[in-house]
Amino acid sequence: MTDTLRSLRGAAFVALLPVLIAVLVIAFGTGAHERIFNLFLINMILVIGLQMFMGNSSIVNLGHIGFMGIAGYTAAILTIPVQIKAKIIPNAPFGLATFQLGPVEAGIVAILVTMVFALLVGVLIVRESGISATILTLAFLVIVHTVVANWVELTRGMRALYGVPMTVNKWILLAAVIAAIFFARWFRDSPIGLQLRASGESAIAAESSGVNVRLLRLVAWVLSAAVVGLGGVFYVYLIGSVSPKSFYFDTTLLTLAMLILGGMSSISGAVAGTVVVTAGFELTRYFESGPVMFGVKLPEFLGLTGFFLGLIIVLSMILRPKGITGTDEVDERWFRHKM
Amino acid sequence: MEYFTQQILNALSIGGNYALLALGLAIVFSVIGLVNFAYGEVIAVAGYAMFGVYVATGIGSALLLLPVGILAAVGMSVALEKVAFRPVRYAPAATGLLTAFGVSMVIRSFFITLVATRSKAVPMPEWLGQRIDLGFVRIQLIQIIETTATAVALLLLVFILRRTNIGLAMRAAARDFDMVRMVGINANKVIAAAFAVSGFLAGLAAIFIIARRGAVDPFMGFAPVLKAFVAAVLGGFGSLGGAVLGGFILGALEVFFQVLLPSDIAGYRDAFVFALVSIILVWRPQGLMGTRHQFGDKDE
Fold first, then answer.
1. Which of A37, A107, A296, B147 is the most exposed place for a label (fewest CB within 10 A)?
2. ipTM of this complex > 0.85?
3. Do residues B110 and A304 touch, judged by C-beta distance below 8 A?
4. Could you tell me if A255 and A49 are in contact, meaning their C-beta atoms sit under 8 angstroms apart?
5. Which residues contact B277 (CB under 8 A, 6 or more apart)?
């Protein structure tokens, strides 16, 4: 079996999990489950996008949600109907209030814009290693947030932009998740991904074997931004409105927790982490509201979700610091003896 | 001239606060390589301890509340090390970072559950807000106290680091922890001392944060610690002098942009500050006072 085929088989194997969950949701789920499922798929796209840079280069990235914001806002501003724009952002610069695009064109433009920003920022970030690279990604997030929250003519500031046509459904999202899984797995197993992972272990050893670490990091950074941007576009198409606080630390920490909990060096880890954290989150949210169990009304516990999410993270870091799946893809481990 | 002096004092007191916190982060990082994102919650614990004692006793005196805040922060910081950070001590940096995120979520949610999200007022003595007229400039008393306390705390820390055995061990651990343990120094003691010092600095900073806000809430530590983190990296993460320098530079930058930016773009202040910090970091990736690393070196 060739390497490419093995990667494809592995990706297909991992993609079975979201498909299986989709089957369950369609068979037994209610409307509320479907809403959770849709957001779960979007988080999975974000986490896979984050994995492509962070998992391969081993640089902790706190700025990816900035790309979600850029893509989300671009798509929102381009697709909101002209009549609504005349009311909420009449003075948008570059004549943006005078036309509107369909969701597909707007999505493509949004992702291209995100990639251009990623290229500009990435040139600076890939030069750094370790903690200063992380700080630069953090600075990027803060700068994007500050600009979005203050550029009132373009983004309406802290107030929400609304009126985005809601054009995605669970099928589109599921297809996108599967595509993202295949894309990220192909990237991880490609020569670029392999060399980048080597540089994550030891940049000096990789450089001295002729790996152009900065260039490869830049490629990973831009592709990762594109996938995260796709998540941002789908997010606004799903919710129909957008505000700066959707693209800040809460989302950053949630997706980061999903990835590291699952295991950041593999796509299986990204997928598993998203599933586990979402499940835990929804379960504790249920208890938070004070449900009736065995005829007893439990008290309301505000903050319970955060408590358990935090506890799960701490415990799993202590007990399984490499994440649920460890360093390898699930299929690599399970099928190893046959290779 | 008066305006100018006033702004310099502002920069000193804001920068002093960042310097305390940046130093608290840097001292832990330099010893065990942990980026302690739960540090903001140590501040919140100090705040709630002061609030709790005030509610229980009804005494709003600074003489009672200040030691309570500092003791609570030191205790919390050392306890966190024992319970949460010791098991991940030798794990990669990302593991420690996420553990700290988890710890911070647990503590914050604990306060949300028990004390509610809304701010609780902590009365600060009237005289703290008084202004003193020096003829050419009027200074808020709290700024004087804050700047003085920061200076005293830093001097005390320098004394501990330079003149005591445990301080010597901490400085040595910042260079090469394995070597420190090889010469027979108890690793747990050194690490506990680093966390205790870190907690002390958080407690001290907490007092001034609360004095400014007049209230405590579960999220009060987040923004200051984020800034302190940036300050510490700016100065050179792991370099203790660098953390102090970074704190004061960040404070000065904030005041500078606050004064300089016209009011219609004043909201962009943080974007300017972070952009400038990024430029400095691109120019000097190791931070202003950090030791030079070769491309690809491990962080430690």
1. A296
2. no
3. no
4. no
5. A135, A139, B230, B234, B250, B253
- Stretches in chain B below the pLDDT threshold 50: 294-300
Give residue B135's region: left, alpha or beta (phi > 0; psi -120 to 50): left
Q: Decide if B36 contacts B25 (C-beta within 8 A).
A: yes
**Nearest CA among B169, B194, B284 for reference residue B234:** B284
- Token readout for A3 is 């390497």
Domain boundaries in chain B?
A: 2-219
- Under DSSP, is residue B131 helix (H, G, I), strand (E, B) or coil? strand
Cα–Cα distance for residue pair B45/A324, rounded to 1 Å: 32
Interface of A with B in 160-189 (CB under 8 A): none
Axis-axis angle for helices B187-213, B62-80 (nearest 10): 140
Cα–Cα dist A226/A234, whole Å: 12
Closest residue in B to A249 (Cα) is B222
Contact A135, B284 (CB under 8 A): no
Tell me if B199 sits within 8 A of B74, measured CB to CB.
yes
User: What is the value of pTM for the model shown?
Assistant: 0.85
Whether A139 contacts chain B with CB within 8 A: yes
Q: Which of A59, A61, A137, A142 to substitute to test the interface with B, most B CBs within 10 Å?
A: A142
Inter-residue contact B189 to B173 (CB < 8 Å): no
Chain-centroid distance of CA B15 in Å reads: 11
A31-57 and A249-262 are packed helices; what angle lies between their axes, rounded to 10 degrees? Answer: 70
A250 touches chain B (CB under 8 A): no
Residue of B nearest to A198 (CA): B296
What angle, 0 to 180 degrees and rounded to 10, lies between the N-to-C axes of helices A170-189 and A213-239?
170
Alpha-carbon span A323 to A32, nearest angstrom: 29
Q: Which residues contact A125 (CB under 8 A, 6 or more apart)?
A: A133, A136, A137, A140, A217, A221
Q: With a cut of 70, which residues of chain A have pLDDT below it?
A: 1, 290-302, 335-339
Distance CA B267, CA B269 (A): 5
What pLDDT was estimated at residue B144?
81
From A254, A269, A259, A268, select the one nearest A310 (Cα to Cα): A254
Distance CA B203, CA B213 (A): 15
Dist. CA B224–CA B43, nearest whole Å? 10
User: Cβ–Cβ of B296/A147 closer than 8 Å?
Assistant: no
B267 neighbors B36 (Cβ within 8 angstroms): no
| Interatomic CA distance for residues B253 and B270, integer angstroms | 10
B106, B111, B114, B226, best to mutate vs chain A, most A CBs in 10 Å: B106
Question: If phi over 0 gives left and psi between -120 and 50 gives alpha, with beta otherwise, what is residue A295?
Answer: left
CB A130 within 8 A of CB B299: yes
What is the pLDDT at residue A336? Answer: 63
Q: In angstroms, what CA-CA distances link B294 with A57, A181, A248, B286?
A: 17, 35, 33, 10
Backbone φ, ψ for residue B281 (5° rounding): -70, -35
Question: Helix or strand or coil: residue B133?
Answer: strand
